[in-house]
Amino acid sequence: MHKVGVGVVGLGRIGRLHAEILKMKVNNAELVAVSDVVESIARDVGERLSVKWYTEYERMLKDPKVEAVIISTPTFLHKDMIIKAAEEGKHIFVEKPLTVTTQEAREVISAIRKYGVKLQVGYNRRFDYAYQKAKSDVDKGKIGKPIAFISIARDPGAPPGWAADPKLSGGIFLDMLSHDFDMARWIISSEIVEVYVIGGNYIFEEIRRKGDLDVVSIVFKFKNGVQGLIHGARKFPYGYELRTEVYGDEGVVYVGSSIDNMYARGGKEGLVYHGAPWFEKRFYEAYVNELNEFIEAIVEDKEPPVTVIDGLRVIEIAEACWRSVKEGRNVNVELSYY
């Protein structure tokens, strides 16, 4: 079977991970090129993985062996890079979130449809075994009628570099909690239509100065009447924490942070396992699975499992959250339909 030639642009932490996975673990895909504006990084990754390397994204797009691109660059660069790839007829996998604003997302949707290419957004939790089991159990009615979706997300510390600027990243709602919004929509199988946010700056002065928040609680409502609650914080004492619960009238499902069972400490308090220190370890197999499904969508000419509209929906929710914070009231989510 023909292998889809793939290029990766943006060789930070996630871009390198995607490139390594494509090189070794994705069926029907061949990593053929990598690109980064920092020459030393592009050269190092390219030579280590034995593929072409570029410092100019546009040159990589002209490579006839590149049939699809993985975009792992900062969020504020996504729109233009997606549109350029679409114009060259390349299929696109873009790391979450899709873009910074809904206006940018609409421009992306127009380009994807105009040039007839496929686009998948990197909401990798949909491909994690625990979240998939939770959705399956909810869909099969094993907890009865869903009543509430509850999610807790806490990072080890303040976001670095460009991600600390909400004008470039979308801030805590889009940069950090977009996974949680996507999980809520996916597991409950309904749109979020109303939000109310309590948020503030409790920890990081730098985050406050840049106009972002570091701790938020979001109460929301789904179209089908289910309640929702998401709590997010930019700092947690032992690293990375993630917990999700769906409460129904006949049961409940829980998804938590995976523990590291390779190490434990015993003492008077009992045997204590360490949690996964960061998302790369917690969701490694999900990263593998999402790239396999992206390539499968290209090979089989079918819609990717996380669509450009899914990407748009999360941005619409995040923008409603910002309006709620600024206006101090419940805000309806403005849903666009295509």
Describe what you observe in this structure.
The chain has 338 residues and is of the alpha/beta class. The protein folds into two domains: 145 residues, Rossmann fold (3-Layer(aba) Sandwich), CATH 3.40.50.720; 171 residues, Dihydrodipicolinate Reductase, domain 2 (2-Layer Sandwich), CATH 3.30.360.10. It is built from 13 helices and 15 strands. The protein has a seven-stranded mixed sheet with strand order 12-11-7-10-9-8-15, covered by helices on one side. Strands 3-2-1-4-5-6 form a six-stranded parallel sheet, sandwiched between helices. Helix 5 runs antiparallel to helix 13. The chain is globular and about 55 Å long.
Shape: globular
Percent of residues in β-strands: 25-35%
CATH architecture of the largest domain: 2-Layer Sandwich
Strand order of the largest sheet: 12-11-7-10-9-8-15
CATH level-4 homologous superfamily of the largest domain: Dihydrodipicolinate Reductase, domain 2
Oligomer: single chain
Strand count, sense and barrel status of the largest sheet are: 7 strands, mixed
At the first level of CATH, the class of the largest domain is Alpha Beta
Radius of gyration over all CA atoms, rounded: 20 Å
Give the H and E element order: EHEHEHEHEHEHEHHHEHEEEEEEHHHE
Strands, total number: 15
